[in-house]
C-alpha cells in the first residue's frame, strides 16, 4: 500500500509498505477524512520524538472499516468510524490506574505516528477496535468529525486539567485549533471572562464565535501586563496553555491568582527545561498548580464528543479553513500546517 511518511528528521515523502495485519481484537481502516497536525510538524522538522525512519504520519482520521478481527463484536466492514489519536491498551496496569494514555509507558497510548504507522496510508491498523473506535453518527460531516480525533479532546482536556468552573476568569494562551477548542470547552464549562491570546485575525474571529469575551494580541505588548490590566491586578483563576514554548509557563504563572490552576496541552517540541518564576509562584507556596497531560482517547470519549456535534452544542466546521479532495493532497495539506499562512486554522483532506 501507499503512505505519506517521515523518512527521517526534516524529510518526508511517499513510500510503499506492506498492508498491516489485523489481529483478533483489531481492525483495518481506510481513511475517509484525514487532517495533518502541528504535532506532525514537531515530529518531522524538530525531531521532537527523536529519529523516525519510514514511519507513516498522521493521527487524525474518520474512516471506513475494511477488516475486523475474529473477536471484534461491535464493528464490521463498511462501518464509518471516528478514530481517536490516542488508542490505549485498555488491559494495561496504567489503564487500570486511570492513566490509559500512558499504557505501556509515558505517552505510549499515542501510537499513530509516534512508534506505529499513522493514518496517512491507504489502510491503517487500530488496536482493540471495540474500545478504540466509535461509529460516526448519521448526518455528521466526516470533515467536521475528524476534529474529534485530536483537536476537540486535546482542547477540552486543557479545560479539564485547569478545572474550569462556573464563573471563573480564564485565559487561553494560543488559539490555533486546539486553543480554539479550549475556548469552546471553557465556555461550555461556564467561564465568565474568557481571554484568548493570539494574533491571527481568522483565529481571533473564531475565538469570539466560540465564546471568548476578549482577544489579547501579544503583538500589542506583554500578555501578562494586558491580563493584569483587565483584571485590575488580580489575574485569572485558570490558564490553559495551548501554544507557545517553554517560556510560556512563566507568563501563565504570573497571570494566575493564588489557588489557581494551569492546564497545559501544548506539545513542547524544543527546549530542555521549563522555568517557573520564584516570586510569582509564591516562593513555591502560592498554591498555583501546574497540570499537563495528553488527551484521553477511546470509544466512550469519542461517542460523548460526537454527541456534542449531533446536538449542536459544538460546531467544529469553523476550524476547517482549507479542504482538499484526494489522497494525493496530503503533502500539500501538511505543508500548510508547517508554513501556517494567516488564513489557516486547520486543513482537512477528503479521500
In a few lines, what is going on in this structure?
The protein is 26% helix and 23% strand. It has helices spanning 38-45, 93-96, 129-132, 142-145, 151-162, 177-188, 201-210, 223-230, 248-255, 299-310, 330-339; strands at residues 2-8, 11-16, 27-34, 55-56, 61-68, 80-83, 124-126, 134-135, 170-173, 194-197, 214-216, 236-241, 256-264, 289-292, 320-325, 346-350.
Mean pLDDT: 96
User: What is the CATH architecture term of the largest domain?
Assistant: Alpha-Beta Complex
- Listing every helix as H and every strand as E from the N terminus to the C terminus, the arrangement reads EEEHEEEHEHEHHEHEHEHEHEEHEHE
Q: Main sheet?
A: 7 strands, mixed
Counted beta strands: 16
Name the shape in a single word: globular
> Could you say how many structural domains there are in total?
2
Low-confidence region ranges = none
Q: Which class of secondary structure composition applies to the elements?
A: alpha/beta
What oligomeric state best describes the polypeptide chains here? single chain
- Beta content comes to 15-25%
Q: What is the radius of gyration?
A: 20 Å
Query: Which bin fits the share of residues in helices?
Result: 25-40%
What's the end-to-end separation, in Å?
15 Å
Q: CATH-wise, what's the superfamily of the largest domain?
A: Medium-chain alcohol dehydrogenases, catalytic domain
Tell me, what is the CATH class of the largest domain?
Alpha Beta
Summed up, the helix count is: 11
The CATH topology annotation of the largest domain reads as: Quinone Oxidoreductase, Chain A, domain 1
Amino acid at each position: 500500500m501507499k503512505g505519506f511518511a517521515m523518512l527521517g528528521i526534516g524529510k518526508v515523502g511517499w513510500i510503499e509498505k506492506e498492508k498491516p495485519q489485523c489481529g483478533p481484537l483489531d481492525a483495518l481502516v481506510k481513511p475517509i477524512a484525514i487532517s495533518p497536525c502541528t504535532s506532525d510538524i514537531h515530529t518531522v522538522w524538530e525531531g521532537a520524538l527523536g529519529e523516525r525512519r519510514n514511519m507513516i504520519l498522521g493521527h487524525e482520521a474518520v474512516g471506513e472499516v475494511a477488516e475486523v478481527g475474529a473477536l471484534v463484536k461491535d464493528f464490521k466492514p463498511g462501518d464509518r468510524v471516528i478514530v481517536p489519536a490516542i488508542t490505549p491498551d485498555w488491559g494495561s496496569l496504567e489503564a487500570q490506574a486511570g492513566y490509559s494514555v500512558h499504557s505501556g509507558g509515558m505517552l505510549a497510548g499515542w501510537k499513530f505516528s509516534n512508534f506505529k504507522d499513522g493514518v496517512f496510508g491507504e489502510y491503517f491498523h487500530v488496536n482493540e477496535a471495540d474500545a478504540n473506535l466509535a461509529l460516526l453518527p448519521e448526518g455528521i460531516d466526516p470533515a467536521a468529525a475528524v476534529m474529534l480525533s485530536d483537536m476537540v479532546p486535546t482542547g477540552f482536556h486543557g479545560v479539564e486539567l485547569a478545572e474550569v468552573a462556573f464563573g471563573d476568569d480564564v485565559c487561553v494562551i494560543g488559539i490555533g485549533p486546539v486553543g480554539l477548542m479550549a475556548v469552546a470547552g471553557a465556555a461550555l464549562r461556564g467561564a465568565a471572562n474568557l481571554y484568548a491570546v493570539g494574533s491571527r485575525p481568522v483565529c481571533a474571529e473564531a475565538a469570539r464565535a466560540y465564546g471568548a469575551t476578549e482577544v489579547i494580541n501579544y503583538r500589542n505588548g506583554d500578555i501578562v501586563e494586558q491580563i493584569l490590566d483587565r483584571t485590575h491586578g488580580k489575574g485569572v483563576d485558570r490558564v490553559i496553555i495551548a501554544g507557545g514554548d517553554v517560556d510560556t509557563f512563566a507568563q501563565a504563572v504570573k497571570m494566575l491568582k493564588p489557588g489557581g490552576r494551569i492546564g497545559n496541552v501544548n506539545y513542547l517540541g524544543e527546549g530542555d527545561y521549563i522555568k517557573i518564576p520564584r516570586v510569582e509562584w509564591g516562593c513555591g507556596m502560592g498554591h498555583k498548580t501546574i497540570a499537563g497531560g495528553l488527551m484521553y482517547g477511546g470509544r466512550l470519549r469519542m461517542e460523548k464528543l460526537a454527541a456534542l456535534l449531533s446536538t449542536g452544542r459544538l460546531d467544529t466546521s469553523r476550524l476547517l479553513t482549507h479542504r482538499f479532495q484526494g489522497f494525493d493532497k496530503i503533502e500539500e495539506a501538511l505543508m500548510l500546517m508547517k508554513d501556517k499562512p494567516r488564513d489557516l486554522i486547520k486543513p482537512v483532506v477528503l479521500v
